[in-house]
Amino acid sequence: MAVGMAAAGPSTAEAHGAAAAVSCVGTNTIGFSPGLGLQARRTRISGTGTYTCTSAEPGFASATSVIRGGGVNGCFASEATTVEKITWRNGERSVVLYPMGTVQQVAGQAVVLVVGKVVSGAFRGRTVASPGAQLTLDVPACATDRGVREITGPSTLTIL
Fold it and tell me: What is the C-alpha to C-alpha distance for residues 65 and 48, in angstroms, rounded to an integer?
């Protein structure tokens, strides 16, 4: 942490203890390069999320996020590590690390339940659960060389 940043004082979430859980609902869109195929292969993951949240702190009532990561992914199973950089309505940020987790997929339809930890920013040290179901409208693409390039759908974000 830079010396100038330390002088600014704790974030709103830290100043008020932020002991209560923050619960968010929204949508994630996740891209894969190369696309998901029948055989799992090493891929890069990138995506975005938007959330509406319930929190005791008004500045944490909504958020957007950028998701990056990678691992071995296919249309039937994925094992990946991802980082979600969340920007809250009040301008504060949280960085969440989701360590290697397994996502069950059926022909590109992902049923996601990942658990991670806030590694920096607001809510640092807190556990995060992010279940959701991201879907593809192009299931036959699993059987092509191009594969499924994008999945999208509802997601939740719960900071405990």
Answer: 5
